[in-house]
Amino acid sequence: MSLRLSTVILPHRRWNEGGRETWQRAEQLGFHTGYTYDHLSWRTFRDGPWFGAVPTLTGAAAVTDRLRLGTLVTSPNFRHPVTLAKELITLDDISGGRVTLGIGAGGTGFDATALGQDPWTPRERADRLAEFVPLLDRLLSEDSVSYEGDFYSAHEARNIPGCVQRPRLPFAVAATGPRGLKLAARHGQAWVTTGDPKLYENGTPEQSRHALRGQIDKLTDACAALGRDVNTLDKILLTGFTPDRSHPLESLDAFVDFAGRHRELGFTELVIHWPIPDSVFASDQKVFEQIAMEAPAQLG
To answer: Could you tell me which residues are beta bridge partners of residue 105?
Structure first.
């Protein structure tokens, strides 16, 4: 099974101070997709520069030709399906059909309260995602949509001419719970995970792989319940949040070993963070680029 290698580029640099060049370099290095976080701010980066995901990806679309572009991940925390659909259709048009939407329930970080609301409980986040994803699916696939739900409404929302990609741009649904996995099985072209967060501090790489295998088994069951072959979904691991942490980026051999073990679990795409000095994503730029250029050939 072939394994694609992608990167996630955080939107923390001004476009004219390295932002543009980073996206162009990602394409030169041969990455399959360049993703970015879709947050209003994020953890230790909160008090520094941070730009919007969709405008950043629009800029990236204008300075690249082959690199796919996407979010990891968009959530209902501060998005509405009607306005998001219009932005995504525009981005898909500008990029010539190179957009993937990573989408998930969101968390309890800064995004959860930036609009003045109290953080939603896990159940509330799941409830909103369960309504958000099917409505967004319709908005990106149909010329006109009207809908009245518990959380979202659309009144004759027009989305002409629709996506360049047909019937719509692909969804990569981030999920580990039963309701999210069902959404991935029904609406996703890909599934995304970061692993089991409970293992990050004190778990082992072996425990992490066992947990990931269990997640894929549950995804398989969710697909089977809908009569879908799980092999029709790409399986994406956003790295950096398992007990391995940054170890796979310490050398080409370390990464090839890490990637091979996760390919055996059934993953079809690994996403590695573009190095950011003096941060949780610090790594050697030269080693990172060596991995980008040489690891895919070794992985077959």
So the answer is: none
Give Cα separations from 273 to 8, 90, 94, 239 (angstroms). 5, 26, 25, 8
- How many Å apart are CA 216 and CA 57, to the nearest integer? 29
pLDDT digits (tens, 9 = 90+) for 256-265: 999 999 999 9
Q: Specify the DSSP class assigned to residue 224.
A: H
Contact status, residue 208 vs residue 242, Cβ threshold 8 Å:
yes
* Residue 55 neighbours by CB under 8 Å, 6+ apart: none
**Other CB atoms within 10 A of residue 143 CB:** 10
Given a contact cutoff of 8 angstroms between Cβ atoms, the answer to whether 39 and 8 are in contact is: no
Contact 174, 192 (CB under 8 A): yes
Angle at 36 between CA 30 and CA 42, to 5 degrees: 145
Report whether pLDDT(1) > 90.
Answer: no
d(CA 238, CA 210): 16
Residue 94 belongs to what H/E stretch?
A: helix 81-95
The stretch 9-31 carries a mean pLDDT of 98
Cβ count near 15 (within 10 Å): 17
What H or E segment, with its residue span, contains residue 264? helix 252-265
How many CB atoms neighbour CB 268 within 10 A?
Answer: 18
C-alpha distance from residue 203 to each of 1, 110, 244, 245 (Å):
28, 27, 9, 11
Residue 203 in 3-state DSSP?
Answer: coil
Strands (E), 53-209: 68-74, 99-103, 144-148, 153-158, 171-174, 190-193
